[in-house]
Design a protein that fits this description.
Blueprint (H helix, E strand, L loop, with lengths): L10 H6 L10 H6 L4 E5 L6 H12 L6 H4 L8 H7 L5 E5 L8 H18 L9 H11 L5 H5 L1 H13 L3 E6 L3 H9 L2 H16 L5 E8 L15 E4 L14 H10 L6 H8 L2 E3 L2 E3 L2 H10 L13 H9 L2 H11 L4 E4 L14 H10 L4 E8 L2 E7 L3 H17 L4 H9 L3 H19 L7 H14 L4 E9 L2 E9 L6 E8 L8 H14 L4 H4 L6 E9 L2 E6 L9 H11 L4 H8 L3 H9 L2
Parallel strand pairs: 1-4, 1-5, 2-3, 3-4, 13-14
Antiparallel strand pairs: 6-7, 8-10, 9-10, 11-12, 12-13, 14-15
Length: 596
């Protein structure tokens, strides 16, 4: 059997060493037939670098690579082979290693990459005049001006066109890596002019350019990156262009698993690695499929690779609404959001929720299922694509809880056994100590509380059915915990933000919250599961100040029927008789008796 190309993205090596190769060579035909400048965005490890490598070996005029392609689909396209196979000067540059936490080092890395590019093509010195040679030498020696570096790719295309008498193909791999790094480490505004001028100079109105293909994760097609560039065609996960050329189709997965004689449950493979929708085509994660074949067992292969830091950061620091939607996604639901097709990393600085959802989608953490126009905006329904990605979201939330020292189960245990004061003290300490973890700005404490709800939805799901912001009774409750063990107690938690105009105090606001739970009959959903012993908690917050009131408190507001039971208890009526008369549980009546 052929060796798997684990960790290998050089097309020539894969073919020469007869490694297993899923034939995507017709990508070349589609690229030739597309516009002058093509930007392709796909999640990491979906074959972008391999495809750029394949095109380099196909077009490069300095090589004779007929033998690399003779057994591939593209070789049947005789007209393309005759006109294009090793017939074009090629500039190939990758930004995949341009990673730095500071501006100076990123600047140095970029200059080094451009210097290496010039060294690789120094044969063009034969056709340069003296002034051009001086600048060329300075770029090779890393001593040029920024303006010279910004024009370096364009000028090299001019020199190569002069040398070969043919227009140049430019291939730029992972073009958005420097931009992502700049966003992460706070020098976005400083680096984008340099990168933007470099790309614009190379691609806009470049008379020496035959075709350019750029790959990345996000679209970098606006602001200073491609300012004024009007000849660009974009292939993103939403579009039909090249929709089956990155990732594996169902047929390619079946063929791969059959070739390696791997026995598998089709549903399990689908559940774990399928789910992507690239322009209407069903796509599997190729990296995970190759590793599945290698390891011969299901596992989170793609998620165990690097590249998750930014996504984790955005979830942790996300708004209350974002955390609510993450909870729904983990529970298998779809959520509706706006997707910005031309999103760039700078949009994240605007605290744009749409930019975050777009990044999740473009990066492979979500799939889109449908779209519609709504108020002149295209809204998409998205969901988690498969079990591998769901596992990532669950682990991210669990890590958030561990890092912030939140022990939800311990707090709820105190609540269930009636230690309401201990629960209150624990929750207040938790708020004081961990609010900043979820809310770096200090301006939206709701992020903490919704982070807590999100944590409950993940950390307690083995023992509880967790519902939040759901229609219950006559209104909405923030959290409903329905125990799977029917002998256990149900819990309703209402979170309220203190309103200084409407509430006299935090305590008054918390009592109103408990009153709302009773009036809106939030307990109806829990009772529908056959559970009548229910703890109701109202938590009111004002920044880091918290007040908690529950039906376990001695000064609790009772419902009308509970007040009747209280009066009967005070008159010495038997508990079982009261239960029959009021339809309250024995446990509930005992709780009322305890607060007398």
């Amino acid at each position: 059997m052929k060796r798997l190309p684990i960790g290998q993205s050089d097309f020539k090596t894969i073919i020469e060493e007869d490694m297993y190769f899923v034939d995507k060579s017709l990508l070349i035909k589609e690229v030739i037939e597309s516009g002058n400048v093509l930007l392709i965005t796909r999640p990491r490890r979906f074959g972008k670098t391999l495809s750029q490598s394949m095109m380099k070996y196909f077009f490069d005029i300095t090589q004779n690579n007929d033998y690399l392609f003779k057994n591939l689909k593209i070789y049947k396209e005789k007209n393309i082979i005759e006109k294009h196979l090793n017939k074009h000067p090629v500039i190939y540059i990758t930004f995949k290693d341009l990673k730095s936490n500071n501006l100076k080092k990123m600047h140095d890395l970029l200059i080094s990459e451009l210097s290496t590019l010039y060294i690789d093509h120094k044969y063009v010195l034969d056709v340069l005049d003296n002034e051009e040679k001086i600048i060329y030498d300075k770029i090779m020696d890393r001593e040029a001006l920024d303006a010279d570096y910004e024009n370096s790719i364009r000028n090299l295309s001019k020199y190569m066109e002069r040398y070969y008498g043919k227009k140049v193909i430019i291939l730029i791999d992972e073009c958005d890596i420097p931009i992502k790094q700049a966003y992460l480490y706070g020098y976005y505004d400083e680096i984008t002019p340099l990168i933007g001028n470099l790309f614009s100079s190379a691609l806009k109105d470049n008379v020496y350019l035959e075709k350019a293909v750029l790959t990345g994760i996000t679209g970098v097609t606006k602001e200073s990156i491609f300012s004024g560039l009007n000849n660009i065609e974009v292939s993103i996960v939403l579009s039909n262009l090249l929709n089956d050329k990155y990732g594996f189709t169902k047929e390619e997965v079946e063929e791969t698993l059959k070739y390696y004689e791997l026995e598998y449950e089709e549903k399990e493979v689908i559940d774990w690695y399928n789910g992507y929708n690239f322009g209407g085509v069903e796509i599997y994660n190729p990296f995970s499929i190759i590793n599945l074949v290698d390891e011969k067992k299901i596992g989170p292969y793609w998620m165990n690779t690097s590249g998750n830091y930014l996504i984790r950061k955005l979830i942790k620091e996300g708004s209350a609404e974002l955390k609510d939607k993450i909870e729904k996604l983990i529970n298998g639901e779809e959520v509706e959001c706006e997707i910005i097709e031309t999103m760039v990393y700078g949009d994240l600085n605007l605290n744009s929720e749409s930019a975050i959802w777009t990044l999740f989608l473009f990066s492979g953490y979500l799939k889109w299922t449908s779209k519609k126009r709504k108020n002149n905006i295209t809204m998409y329904k998205v969901k988690i694509p498969n079990e591998e990605v769901k596992d990532f979201f669950v682990q991210t939330v669990r890590n958030m809880l561990r890092e912030s020292n939140i022990s939800i189960e311990n707090m709820l245990l105190n609540l269930k056994v009636g230690r309401i004061k201990t629960f209150t003290d624990q929750f207040k300490d938790l708020t004081m100590n961990t609010l900043s973890y979820f809310d770096v700005s200090g301006k939206e404490p709701e992020r903490f509380y919704h982070g807590l709800i999100l944590g409950m939805s993940v950390g307690l799901k083995e023992k509880y059915i967790i519902k939040s912001n759901r229609e219950t009774g006559l209104g909405r409750a923030d959290v409903i915990l329905i125990p799977k063990d029917k002998t256990d107690k149900g819990i309703i938690i209402e979170f309220k933000k203190y309103n200084r105009d409407e509430d006299k105090s935090l305590k008054d606001s918390a009592k109103n919250g408990l009153k709302q739970i009773n009036e809106k009959k939030y307990e109806e959903e829990i009772k529908s599961y056959g559970i009548n012993d229910i703890i109701k908690v109202s938590i009111v917050f004002d920044k880091k100040e918290v007040e908690i009131v529950s039906n376990l408190d001695k000064d609790v507001e009772l419902t009308e029927i509970e007040k009747v039971a209280k009066n009967m208890l005070e008159n010495g009526v038997d508990i079982e008789f009261i239960s029959k008369m009021t339809n309250l549980s024995i446990e509930k009546i005992k709780n009322i008796k305890n607060i007398l």
